[in-house]
Write a structure and sequence with these properties.
It is a single chain. The protein is mainly alpha-helical. Among the domains are: about 80-145; about 285-339, no CATH class. Helices cover about 75% and strands about 5% of the residues. The protein contains 20 helices and 2 strands. It has helices spanning about 1-25, 40-65, 70-100, 100-105, 115-130, 135-145, 150-165, 170-175, 180, 185-200, 200-215, 220-235, 240-250, 250-255, 260-270, 275-285, 290-300, 305-315, 320-330, 335-339, and strands at about 25-30, 35-40. Strands 1-2 form a two-stranded antiparallel ribbon. A hairpin with a 2-residue loop joins strand 1 and strand 2 (about 35-40). It is elongated and about 130 Å long. It starts with a helix and ends with a helix.
Length: about 350
């Protein structure tokens, strides 16, 4: 309606001006150096002015269209590349699902616009990963990030997951140190899995702490998972002060657990601080002690008479515990009996 209104209004004004100029006998005269160059009625001048405006408008539009020809040619080339890339994407997806990984990777290598490259390179990385070609996989990841910087974090997550699947734990742990990955929701989980696989027990414990602080795991899960790394991590402590400092950074649920205290006591014994170590062990000798602590204590008691004495004392106090009953019924270790 608005367009129709303006069209009708413009035609009405034009007709009104035409009638007005036709009835008006005025003339337009243009003089140059006292010589008249143009002498015509206002009606003719208006017609010439209108025709001139239309011609100028057409000329400017024509030059504008000519100036846009390179852009149109580029867009046309991009459309062709997009169509080719789309066909390659469809084919690569089919080949990947069917398990033809070499064909899938080859199809993702077709030329396509940068903004369309993310999915292609992701599929290429998946295919290269299935083929066990780590270098080719990583080249696809880097190409995707170069063309799509906003996808840096997402592609680093994909890359790290693939590294973990391939057993490249050291490389995955190195990848976790990249700034783009550190803000990811699953960063702590990826870091823990990489560190655990690489045998970096201190980093694994640090990652578990991060997961616990983000409420990704419960305190029970924290203690259970940490038990696999705690003893080996504490073996790096060179003295009692270092031991206290390292345990101090852990969440309360972990540093106060029986397992942590037991590993601490064992490390103190190894550092020749027997008084402090045995004092902690004595507190842990109770009916509810974890099986891991009991088994370690029995094993340690084979060579350490003081630990064996703690076990025998506990067996007297907690005779109702089947574990202590079996201990009381068994013969003393040969090494200790010889003493």
């Amino acid at each position: 309606m608005r367009t129709l209104f303006w069209v009708v209004l413009s035609i009405s004004v034009a007709l009104w001006l035409g009638v007005l100029l036709h009835q008006d006998g005025s003339t337009l005269t243009i003089v140059w150096r006292e010589q008249p160059l143009v002498n015509m009625t206002l009606l003719k001048a208006s017609i010439f002015g209108l025709v001139g405006f239309v011609l100028l408008y057409i000329v400017f539009r024509l030059f504008g269209w000519i100036g846009r020809i390179p852009k149109h040619l580029r867009e046309r080339g991009n459309r062709k590349a997009w169509v080719k890339g789309a066909k390659g994407l469809k084919g690569a997806l089919i080949q990947l699902i069917e398990g033809n990984y070499a064909k899938a990777e080859k199809l993702t290598s077709a030329e396509f616009p940068d903004e369309e490259s993310l999915v292609h390179h992701w599929l290429g990385a998946q295919a290269a990963h299935k083929l066990g070609r780590s270098a080719l996989r990583d080249s696809h990841i880097e190409a995707a990030i170069t063309a799509n910087p906003d996808a840096d974090r997402a592609m680093r997550i994909v890359q790290t997951e693939m590294m973990l699947e391939s057993g490249e734990f050291v490389q995955a742990l190195t990848n976790c140190e990249k700034p783009a990955l550190q803000g990811a929701t699953q960063y702590a989980d990826l870091r823990y899995r990489a560190a655990a696989g690489a045998g970096d027990h201190r980093t694994a414990l640090s990652a578990l702490k991060q997961r616990f602080e983000r409420k990704a795991i419960s305190s029970e899960s924290l203690v259970e998972l940490a038990s696999a790394h705690m003893e080996l991590a504490l073996d790096h402590c060179e003295n009692a002060a270092d031991l206290e400092s390292y345990i101090g950074f852990m969440p309360r649920a972990l540093k106060n657990s029986d397992l942590t205290m037991w590993f601490k006591a064992k490390r103190l014994l190894a550092l020749s601080d027997e008084t402090a170590g045995l004092k902690i062990m004595a507190k842990l000798m109770h009916a509810g002690m974890p099986d891991k602590v009991f088994e370690d204590a029995v094993s340690l008691g084979q060579t350490n008479s003081q630990v064996q004495a703690l076990l025998e004392d506990a067996a007297k106090r907690f005779g109702s515990d089947p574990r202590f009953q079996s201990l009381a019924a068994s013969e003393p270790p040969k090494a200790l009996a010889a003493e």
